[in-house]
Amino acid sequence: MSSPKDTLQTRATRVQQSVADAAERAGRQREAVNIIAVSKTRTAAEVRQAFRCGLTQFGENYLQDALPKIRALGDIDAQWHFIGPIQSNKTRDVATSFDWVHTLDREKIARRLNDHRRGMPPLNVLLQINVDGDPNKSGIAIEDETETLGLMNRIDALPNLCLRGGMTILSKDTSPIAGFTRMREWFAGHRARPHWDTLSMGMSADFEDAIACGATHVRIGTAIFGPRKELTAS
User: Fold this and answer.
1) Which CATH class is domain 8-225?
2) Which single residue of 94, 120, 139, 183 could bond 128 by disulfide (Cβ 3.0 to 4.6 Å)?
3) pLDDT per residue over 50-108, tens digit each?
């Protein structure tokens, strides 16, 4: 049960310290690990409070929830990460409203994002990789190197996208260390690619293991904002 003193401020401070401690244990600099505060279903006021706690990167899954929030918070210097599935009819809003996309796994979506990003700085994108073969998870199968390299090369040819690395979401039955180690090895195998510097993995329950395995971005929601709120049907 949460204590009355378990506020967003105390949770944010606790997570920031845990990230620093995990980085130190792994022999890494704290600055090498970015905290993405997963703010899906949270209010603009909550995000503003998190920003005041020193969190500047926010992750959103649901476009209809994110867009009003991003507009309302236009006065803060935040980076917005889209971390949900991308439908073709949502690519314009994703391309024009976010700084990062973590869930790219199809050429069609890449081309649409590129077309809608014209006149803006390149959109940072990550390939979503399915590490453990879970049929319920999106992403390119980690074993499918031919598909991966083909998609990478086609993305590199798109002037309004910048491919920065990869992202994964583990299945519940996958050992975090085993899954994250496999993802780290995949990431290292492509290190010679231009702009290749980002490995997004780890969430509230396993971000310390992800940091130990080389994560540069960890996506933390519940540990910062508290128990998840569900969106009501419109």
Assistant:
1) alpha beta
2) 139
3) 999 999 999 999 999 999 999 999 999 999 999 999 999 999 999 999 999 999 999 99
